[in-house]
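My current task is to audit a protein record that another person submitted. Please read both lines and tell me whether the tokens look consistent with the sequence. Do not assume that whoever made the record got everything right. I have pasted the whole thing underneath without changing anything:

===
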Amino acid sequence: MNYVILAAGMGSRFTSEGVNIPKPLVPLMGRPMIGRLIGVLRSVPGCGTITVVANPRMPGLVEYLQTLQADGAPLCIRPAVTDNSYTSLRIGAEGLEGPFVAMTVDAVFPTDEFSRFVGLVERMPQGQVNMALTRHIDDETPLYARLGERNEVTDYHYGGEPFAEGAVISAGVYGLTNAALEAVEARGDYPGSLSDFQRILAAETAVRVCGIEFSKALDVDSTHDCRQAETFLREVNGERPPRRSLKEQYAESLKSLDTEEHIDLAFYRPIGFGWAILFRRLGVSPNAVTLASIFIGIAAGICFYPTTLSVNVIGMFLLVWANSFDSADGQLARLTGRYSRLGRILDGLSGDFWFASIYIAICLRTVHTQPWVAAHPWTVWTIAVLAGICHAKQAALADYYRQFHLFFLKGHAGSELDSSAQLESQAEDMTWRRSPLRKLIALSYSAYTRSQEAETPAMQALRRTIAARWHDEVPASFRECFLDASRPLCKWENFLTFNWRTIFLFISLFAGIPWSYFIIELTIFNGVMIFLNRRHERLCHRLLNAINSD
């Protein structure tokens, strides 16, 4: 049996949740969704060619399929950017003889029932197609089917109320022939979607559409659907995620060795991984871990107000604990696939809450212990505000440079590179009345991203040029050119992050002059930030000139 998988959609609901991985690569049962589906098809006896209609604008999708192909999967990869799902089906079916089974990339079903369906498709008489149906409805806008005599489908309609004959819907699996596609197109109106195709086929052609019921079938359009699908697959198919060694899981929990800081790799990442394994077993979400880190970090800052060194040391341990949780939330998200834009925003805000608490504590301590400052309190508050502004700018730029590096290293799927224009558009779709907190967070994050973009004009010009010329599919030679120049800068980007700041902070606390930390922020850290900004902008100018001279 030949198969067609439709994987050309962009997965807009995942994107709206902040999941930057293309939908076909979202993990399901420990594997990319499309990889798991291909494995199911190969397990059915008599598997022929599996044609995948893949959107080449999805970062990493075609490359992943080529890896499976090299490992022996009988794949025919057809990169295509289509205007609707029926066009994708037409491209996938081209050249196939006899019956074939088509499905969307997010279709989830009982494997034994699918095998029975394939057997029925193989034995379909001429002039008939088989459509998988289910009476399990867990979709806001399902495609309802009308059943006539002998389980024949006579019509479909999208959303609303079911037909009077009963509530049964499409299961997203289709046993078809090219003759059936030609019969639909012979009607004169080209289908605008798969739903439209099914309606025309059942209601307006002489092709007999036979409904084959599955006990249950799901489609996966969101992170919530992923969790439901995994529960379903464990119960019905007895599936389990592939066993991986702790070493393999630890490697998967890291962003990339290019951008990891040495202290993190030696200390925080192993501890964070331990927390992540524990939280995964307990069912704790990454966002809950981030929120816990915020409260622990604020408590650490409060401990820096007293002049008693033992209390300060407790604060240091609390700050280390908070940062281990901050490491754990990202590692937990990568291990479980539970990404969200809210999580990224909270992760970015956590450090701001910690250091706001630390700055306030140091200022109050300085005012209450230094007679001259007590007479002129505005001095330390002014220096603290300036240091805080610089700190925020330094951390924002360091984060942006790391994400840009990860974009070249892993594509969109492996980075969290956002666009202020896209974020603002999403914020506009929210209302103050229905979701005031989410809208406030979205507007704050878009402003944060806009500030990053304002400081990197050449980088933005390079990003726009790449999108226009290559649709973000950067050629390997150009990608390596950027990475070779960017890798030496990663250590300086890491210098602007948590570890070196806390080293200087702890030294100032042990020395009894915590206010000196503000001076370090304004001098050493600002100097590194200016150096990095100039080097990155020069690099981007050089690459832009190379593109324009081609």
